[in-house]
Amino acid sequence: MTRRRDDDTPDAGVSLIEVVVTLALTSVLGMIIVFAVQSNSELHRDTIEESTGLADVKVVVERLGRDIRAARSVDPAATRSRLELWIDSNANNSRDLGEEVTWEVVPGPSGTQYNVLRQTTSGQPVVQAQTVVDALAFCYWEAAAGAPSSDCSGSFAVPLSGTDAAQTRLITTTLTYDATTSGGTSTRTETFSSRLRNAG
To answer: Given a cut of 70, is residue 149 above it in pLDDT?
Structure first.
């Protein structure tokens, strides 16, 4: 006796259309997940780069600002890209070894960024920042100067003369930084001013 198949019984297999639709939905879902992971990764990288640049700027602002505030005078050899200070650490009114501090920018290994160096007369240069993409610009002002401009208009001409160096009481520093010049972060510029509190 043969069994007759009932036409109302569904097939146990999957049709080609169902397979194609399933593959299409899986592909779309996979692309969404890949895009989300990639965007999150880029955002994380940009955040890290921005933090690195800000950390460098913070170190320069704090350390350089402290040096300027503690300085007795600016040396006449100071320029827009090189700052030379005398910090009378032992308060004996004499320039002793280690009391002259130089800040300058030198090209870094990447070729697009610069290292900010701090050096005393008794030691080796120490890298303070590595994300600067444009030379530091130092502007030198008298104590009575009005609000200093970031473009140095109205400041003493450089290199400073002996008279101008002796009259300098305020230094404005402008630096441009970017943690990764080829990355997603944008270049930022920071300008700050510090007064020589111990100048006399």
So the answer is: no
**Angular region, 111: left φ>0, alpha ψ -120 to 50, beta rest:** left
Residue type present at position 54:
L
pLDDT tens readout for residues 154-188: 888 888 999 999 999 999 888 887 766 566 667 77
Instruction: Record the pTM.
Output: 0.72
Query: Pairing state of beta strands 114-120 and 188-195?
Result: unpaired
Which H/E stretch holds residue 138?
A: strand 126-142
Listed as own residue / partner, the contacts of 81-87 with beta carbons closer than 8 Å and 24 or more positions apart are 81/105, 81/135, 81/136, 81/137, 81/138, 82/138, 83/136, 83/138, 83/171, 83/173
DSSP helix/strand/coil, 86: strand
CB count within 10 Å of CB 171 equals 26
Residue 162, phi then psi, degrees to nearest 5: -60, -40
CA distance 131 to 128: 10
Strand partners, 31: none
- Contact of 65 with 83, CB cutoff 8 Å: no
